[in-house]
Design brief:
Strands 1, 2, 3, 4, 5, 6, 7, 8, 9 and 10 form a ten-stranded parallel beta sheet that branches. The chain has two helices and ten strands, in the order ββββββββββαα. About 8% of the residues have low confidence. The chain is mainly β and 155 residues long. The protein has one domain. This is Polymer-forming cytoskeletal protein. Belongs to the bactofilin family. It comes from Nitrincola tapanii. InterPro entries: BacA/B. It holds the Pfam family Bactofilin.
Length: 155
Amino acid sequence: MGILKRHVSAQSKRSAVTIIAEGNRFCGDTKITGKMHVDGQFEGHIHSDEDISIGKQGLISGQIRGRHIFVSGRLEGEVVCDHLHIERGGYVTARVCCAQLTIDAEGTFLGERLLPETPSSALLTEPVKRLQNFTEIDSAEDVIDSLPSRITLRP
C-alpha cells in the first residue's frame, strides 16, 4: 500500500512555509512561494508574495520583498512590503518602503521609510547613499535650534 493517494491534487491550496532554522546560514537570491520564517541567518535577496517573519535569533541582511514582514530578530538592508511590524526586541536597520509601519515597545527602527508612492523599483536598484545630506554640527544647541516648531506625521 502506498503512502500517497491517487486522487490528491498536486497543487495544494495551502501555502508552503520555508524555514531557515537556528544555526543554519543561507546566502543567495531566492523567490519564495508561500511564507518564510528565519531563525538562522539569510544574506541576499528574498522575494515572496506572502509573509516573512524573523525569529528572535534570526538575521536577514539584503534586499527583502514581501507582503507582511514581522521582525523579532534583526533585519538589515532594503525592504519593500505592505506592512512592516517590529516586535519587542526586534531591530531593523533598513531603507523601507511600506504602507504601514508598526513598532512595539522595545522594538528598534533605524533607517529611512518611504511611502508606496515612491517607485519601489528605484528603492531596490539605486544604492543607498548614507550620510549624504548631513552637515557637521558644532553643538547640541545647534540641533535643537534647527528643528521646526511643529512636525506633522501622516499615515
